[in-house]
Amino acid sequence: MINIKMNNQANERKIGIIGGSGIYDLPDIKTKRWVKVSTPWGSPSDEILEAEFEGKDFYFLPRHGRKHLFSPSDINYQANVYALKELGVNEILSFSACGSLDKNMRPGDFVLIDQYIDNTKHRASSFFGKGLVAHVPFGNPNCNRIRNLLRQVFEKLEIHAHFGGTYLAMEGPQFSSRSESFLYKEIWNCQVIGMTNMPEAKLAREAEICYQTIAMVTDFDCWNDDAPHVTLDEIKKIFDANLSKMQEVLKEYFRQGSNPNLFQPCQEGCNDMLKDSIVTHREHWDKKIFNKLHPILDKYS
Question: What pTM was estimated for this model as a whole?
Fold first, then answer.
């Protein structure tokens, strides 16, 4: 166990990546160490990889653990996001497999998500609560700065991607029924469906971390009678086939982001979301909650 001091240099870009195994396995990556981080919210899914790529440090967190021990409902999302915040991360790229609810978003496609519908039922979705109340805006839940930079990356690499789409987060671990699938597609007008990006995106917003989902379509959800019903083997085949593309996207993203002429501090307000969101007066803040949220609330104390 090591003690970690948060990096408060707001203009220093520190990237965190959340995703599955293989994403961080780049040929030119320099692995420094796996860091064990404890949080007031419990343990993250696994140790966090501290590494260097293209001259930039970054952190990688395996969302389900390196041995895939946690189902989507069992992931400690609060601990995961909090641990990255403690490490000084101010930008998260979330790589997520998903099913398609849109005939134009086919297996193998990438989608840069811009909206979510949270249909999860059993997950803690906030750092705040009784004793310290905050209502954080979530109208534009992802960071436009990151999404625009990623759009340039995908276009430069000529990798097919959709720039915008609504991600339906379901509880799982079962896949959808056909009735649910038609509801999400026809009535709720969602484009993709997954199990992991909620409440991850909400917690990143509360932690004042820029966040963007890079969704990879692995299958059509069960609304599509012309496609075979999803199997884990098929999902893995699509995921593995696109792994090299995901690695190329990361390479180019790091290269472009390291160019000072292209990178500017976030102007989207992601890093100041709590400024006008905390409704409990400072003198009434619950000390226990404040102590738990110190890396997040320190600049407001």
Answer: 0.92
